[in-house]
Amino acid sequence: MELPLRYSKNRISNLVQLFTQRASGGESRPDEVMRVLTGGLAKSSRRNGLAAQLDDYLIKRRVLETTVVDGLPSDGFIEPVGSTFREGFRMVLRASSAETRSRFTIAHEVCHTFFYEIVPELKFGSQDVDPEEERLCNLGAAELLIPTRSLRTHAKKYRVSIDSLEELAATYIVSPEAMLLRLRSLGLWSCELSFWRPTQLGFSMDRIVGGRKAKWAWQDDAPLRTAWRSSQAVSGRTYVELRDARGGLQLRSVFFQLVRRGNSIMALWAAKPTEAEPRRLPLFEARRIPPLPSR
Questions:
Q1: Smaller CB count within 10 Å for the chain: N or C?
Q2: For residue 19, is pLDDT > 90?
Q3: In the predicted model, what is the mean pLDDT of the chain?
């Protein structure tokens, strides 16, 4: 059966094509195959609690040993103990990673075991990194750590805000970035999350999650300076700008909420208020920003 255009041979490797065909009989796309596999793994776990379930996944997927190493250059990796799936695997994790990062790495590496099981002739002995396999393992990790049905139920209880994002992330023991991407992928939120660091000239964007990878700048950074000095969230509406290599200017209107977290400012923003909500959300309720003191 010919694969859909989105997953044409020009995009995916023989590994992912064969993985998809064997796991579904050629009737499903790679993303759906990974969702079915991780869904089955999740249903097979009878342990209570997110941490306990992750331990159970390791057992069920034949991960026999987990080692934590100082100075590991990557978040972690998995390697087979022998030459068959039944002989199991050894997982290596970076010691300095935060708990949320380690949990995502564990779930990601667990998903690699599906490839070893389903396409052993291509996985065992291979050192190649397949970008599409990596993407599918990221998808599978998100499915294991933040189950779709569970999140849809929980998200209904929350209004769009940084506090809600952090509370949901804490509930599932994942980072706010991972939670934001999951909420976006399920169509529950349409926000983007960016992080800003102070510089001698103002504030510079460190990274953005869920949006276009570009160096946006604030036309007026007064909200950022207010959030930096305060322990309270700052909300409102403003314009951010982007200059191209030729000096051309692009403006973007955003509704925002800012809060300081350590040495950076977390910014949650969207192009417009969420229409699905029957009432206005805290993120989109403009608040007057007090004037800065004179110098």
A1: C
A2: yes
A3: 87
Gyration radius of the chain over CA positions: 22
For residue 164 the two structure tokens come to 């809600």
Specify the amino acid at residue 235: S
Q: What distance in Å separates the CA atoms of residue 231 and residue 157, rounded to the nearest whole number?
A: 25
Q: How far apart are CA 3 and CA 16, in angstroms?
A: 11
Distance of CA 101 to the CA centre of its chain: 10
At 107-124, the pLDDT tens digits run 999 999 999 999 999 999
Distance (Å, whole) CA 272 – CA 263:
28
Bin 247: left if φ > 0, else alpha if -120 < ψ < 50, else beta: left
Tracing tokens 């999140």 back to the chain, one arrives at 151
Q: State the virtual CA torsion across 55, 59, 64, 69 in degrees, nearest 10.
A: -20
Residues with Cβ within 8 Å of 291's Cβ and at least 6 positions away in sequence, in order, are none
